[in-house]
Amino acid sequence: MMRRRDFLRRSAGLAALSFAPKFSSLAFAQNVDARIEVVLDDVLGTIFPDIYGHFAENLSGVIYDGIWVGENSKIPHVNGIRKELVDEMAKIKPAVVRFPGGCFADSYDWRDGVGPVDKRPRRTNFWNGGEAAQAPDTHRYDPNRFGTNEFTHFCRLIGAQPYLAANVRSLPAEQFYQWIEYCNSPAGSTTLADERAAAGYKEPFNVKYWGVGNESWGCGGNFTPQEYAVEFRRFTTWVPEYGEKLNFIASGSNVDDWSWTRGFLEELAQKGKGMLRSVYGLALHHYAWNLSRGRTQDWNEGKGDAVKFEPVDWYELLREGDRMEHLIQGHWQVMSEQDPHHAIKLVVDEWGPWYRPGSEATPGDQLEQMPTLRDAVFSGMTLDIFNRHPEKVAMANCAQLINCLNSLYLAHENKFVVTPVGHVFAMYAAHQGGEGVRAEFSAPAIHYDRDGKAAAFWGLRGSASLHGKELVLTAVNPNVKDAVQAQVVTRGARVNSGKAVVLTAADIHARNTFEQKQAVVPQARDLEVKGQSPVFTFPPASVTRLQLSLG
Ligand code: AHR
Question: Cα–Cα–Cα angle for 146, 210, 175, nearest 5°?
Answer without folding.
Answer: 70
